[in-house]
């Protein structure tokens, strides 16, 4: 036999034949399919998990108010985070486990395969799809099993409450807390974090000072909150470069200007200064402000200029505030006037 004949004969024996479609495995009935008693027990179990979810949400809210965070008290922080964590975990897991148990014990578990249509279905097919949805609703028992449906609604209603409480505490809800800071007439501008007062003669053209109000470093309570509102960037530019509004011309001193350090987008610290363009950049989302033109927004998502702090000098040559900011500091959505 020649080599070609041997190769041909060997290839004929190594032909790969397609494997037959094994099909779907035979459906195995669950106890809940066979017994209404087991189905009712499963329904109660699912509802119990949804109720646990609601209880978890209540625990989270209780923990938030029962153990308020106190600056310097680590035990209060631990208790607050522990109970809120336990509560939110129960709330989330209760919904998750309840939904999974519902699907595994009471919803149809027959495996089906359907071809996907590449174009709009016919009206008859769409009507049939609606009927299938109604049939699935009937088989799952969503409309029929009132106990599950009602407890699910309750769990979904309770679940976001802890988040609402927590997020509501991140910023002021009522009042004018962001319209007032520690800046007052005559308050000296001091270096952050040393608290050393700054003389106008110390500020050279192009230099940048991170500034806090005098007395902030001596506060025993709410120091971080006050600093978050009162932090200021102090910059000196050539007075001829400033495009000052005549009504605000007295707010600067010999080219020295002071602006809130808190970005008006989401509150990140604006800390990058480009001397040649007089641009201030927020590193979080690249909002850019023109320092020479009242910190107007020239790029990015910020909605309004940085608030300016009116400044002057006292008899000893130290830089002092003329007043507090005349508009709220921080993100625009905290401006209670809007």
Automatic annotation (TrEMBL):
Biased amino acid composition, Basic and acidic residues: 24-40
GO molecular function, one term: metal ion binding
Transmembrane segments: 48-70, 82-103, 152-174
Predominant cellular place of this UniProt entry's protein: membrane
Domain Rieske per the UniProt entry, residue ranges: 229-320
GO cellular component, one term: plasma membrane
SUPFAM superfamilies named among the record's database cross-references: ISP domain (SSF50022)
Region ranges (Disordered): 18-40
Keywords: 2Fe-2S, Cell membrane, Disulfide bond, Electron transport, Iron, Iron-sulfur, Membrane, Metal-binding, Oxidoreductase, Respiratory chain, Transmembrane, Transmembrane helix, Transport
Designated name of the protein: Rieske iron-sulfur protein
Organism the protein comes from: freshwater metagenome
Lineage: unclassified sequences, metagenomes, ecological metagenomes
